[in-house]
Structures are given as C-alpha cells and as structure tokens.
Fold this protein.
Amino acid sequence: MEDIKPSLLDFVTGEDFFQRILVVESGAYLAELRGRFPTAEIFFVAAEANVDCPDVRTTVLDYREERLPFPEEFFDAIIGDLTLEVVTNPQDIAAGFSTYLKQTGCWLTSFRNIRHWSVLEKLMRGVFGGIVSRLYTRTEFERLLYASFYKEVRLLPLKKKSPPELLERLIDCGFDNFDDDLQTEFWLVRASRSMPELALLKTMFTSEVRAELSRLLHRIEYGVATADSVEKFWELFDAQGMFTDYAAAFIRSVVMHREQFYRHMKMFGTRAELDAIIDECESLYDFDTGNRLL
C-alpha cells in the first residue's frame, strides 16, 4: 500500500499515550512507531506479511474481506494510508474500525482527492482509474466518518502544485478552488471517537463509574427520586475521590437543563464542593436570583 509523505504520524503529539496500536498494511510506519512508543503493543495486519520489525504482532489477512481478530475497544490508534481507496463498502470498513478503538482512540488515515488537478486533467483526456479505486472529496470523506461514529475529524492537506495555465483553465471552466483544493493531492486524516474534552473525561474513571455518574445526573436533572439521587451522587463523588473540575466538566457535557439541575441539588442541602462546581461550570449565572451576572 502506498505510504504518504508527510507522514500520518505528523498527527501524533506529545499528549498521545498509545498503549496499543494497530497498523493496517502500511508497514513503513512500524519502525518509527516502535521508536516513539517503546513500551506499546504494536499489531500489524496485512494481506502479505512482508515486514520484519521486532516485537510487532503480525496477522496475515485482508481487512477488506475478513473481520479483524481483536476485541472491541482494544486499540488507542489505528493507522493506515489510503485505507478506503480500494474497498467496495467504505462506510462498513470505517464504522468497523471505530468498534476496535477505545472511547479515547483515533484512526489515522488518508485519501486521494478527486478534485486534484491531476485527476481532472486525466478526466479531460478521457482517462480515469476509478474502476479499481475510490477517490473522495473532502466533504464526502468527512460525512462518511461522521456517519461512522467518529465525533471529531481533523485534516491536513498534502499539496502538489499544478502548472499555472492548467489551474487557470480549470477555474475558468467553473471549478471552485476553495482552500486551494484543486492543488491538494491527498488529505491526511485524524478521526477520533470522542471530542477532545470528552476524551479527557473518559481517561479518568472507568466506563462503569462514568455510566453511573451520567445516570444520577440525569435523574437529578429531571427530578426522578431527587433526594435519593442527590445522596447517591455525593456518595459516588466521595467514594471515587472526584474533584470539582471533573464534576463541572462532566455536568457541562451531559446535563441539558443545568439551572434546573442545580436547583434540584440545592433542594437537599448544599456543600462547599457544590458551590465550587457551580463557580467552575456556571460562573456567569446566579442560580439564587436567576439573573445572569454579565
């Protein structure tokens, strides 16, 4: 499989802590990944096992036709160039990969831009290789990813400049060149299962604790067994050693009617921690008077 430069690993930052990584076909990334993440478990899937990299677990299969032999929510990252270019069911593949990613995980891939001048120039000459490969526009690929359960998509352009006279000709023919799209040959993509702020929340407590916290917050919000729900919220808060910043961020993420939620909390006694949560979450609102402070 073609390896794209600049590398997909340009998306990897110092904040990324990958413990399990799956590389799909793109074996050129294995050595660099081992150097960046020396303690990580690295897995490699390819139709042909044609790489020799120490401490990499290799599985020979065609990801386009066979189910990957891994548990759900197993990987921190899946990495592979042009993963959806030669497939018959791109959304099935994209959605399938998302099931193997942790809630905080990401998929790094790329795609060839069908609006690049070189593709359009071939079309003008009656030449097109789309019978064996799929090319995408940026908008089409983004929609595909959002429909496949990814919550945040970031893209970087990889450009190959056109002859000036050809670019002018394409624009004169009515082709829009928004964001210099006609000169972007490839798009590099980082698709994440969670928004960044939610990904951070999901790293701090187990999924069971987060599910229980979310359940209690909604019960308080809608006044379901309110006294009991408030009591159990504080029991969970204390037992898990939660801090007010975390509670405020979680409340912002899951509670729709926050004024109503805080009024229900105050009905059954207040604590210094609740005042701190309100200060951190709703500093511009006075819940006692119902007036905005600014």
Summary: The first strand starts at residue 20 and ends at 24. The radius of gyration is 24 Å. Residues 175 and 260 are 51 Å apart (CA to CA).
